[in-house]
Amino acid sequence: MLRFVLYRMGVVIPTFLGVTILAFSLIRLIPGDPIELMVGERGIEASRHAELRAQYGFDKPLLQQYAIYLGGVLDGDLGRSIVTKQPVLDEFMAVFPATVELALLPGLCFDEEGTRLGYGRGYFDRFLSRLPATVPRVGVSYDALVVPRLPREAHDRQVTHLATESGVRAVTTPPPAPPAAPSR
């Protein structure tokens, strides 16, 4: 388990660097001058344009711009939106709860027979299929997310109990036995 955690932690750093390099590069590949985009159609004088380029760091070498960007990201400063002039982190946090809801909702929605919406052949399903039939499988959800019936596939693994704000209850039908291995 420790080896797995260390491996995952070791993967985080190159992944983070890759994502920041990709984001930084894609932004720099957008055609046009960001200062002209920011000021709009009315245009500005050359001296003001140079001043804004210096203020936003566009006059620095690309590698130095990336280092400044990376330092800001690590400090939690994602900069200001050119369009709204608001901190990007504030704009991100305004929509983040909806994003989390969309990501987690399928994993929290169960039917009355214990099947979870969003089941698939992922880690959770492989884990459930390895548990002995005598081990209780508890799904945690909200009452509002327990629906009468969800579509099923052969690889779905049902839970044996549902825990909601109303309490813990056994599901209406026991989970089916895992499908037999194909004979050769």
| Fraction of residues in β-strands | 5-15%
Question: Can you write the helix and strand succession as a string?
Answer: HHHHHEHEEEE
- Level of helix content? 40-55%
Sheet bearing the most strands, described?
3 strands, mixed
- Number of self-contained structural domains: 2
Question: Roughly how many Å apart are the termini?
Answer: 34 Å
Counting DSSP E segments of at least 2 residues, the number of strands comes to 5
Care to describe what's here?
The chain is mainly alpha-helical and 184 residues long. It folds into 2 domains: 76 residues, no CATH class; 62 residues, 3-Layer(aba) Sandwich (Rossmann fold). The chain is built from 6 helices and 5 strands; from the N terminus they run αααααβαββββ. The strands form 2 sheets. A 3-stranded mixed β-sheet has the order 2-4-5, with no helix packed on it. Strands 1-3 form a two-stranded parallel ribbon. It is elongated and about 75 Å long. It starts with a helix and ends in a 14-residue tail after the last strand. 7% of the residues are buried.
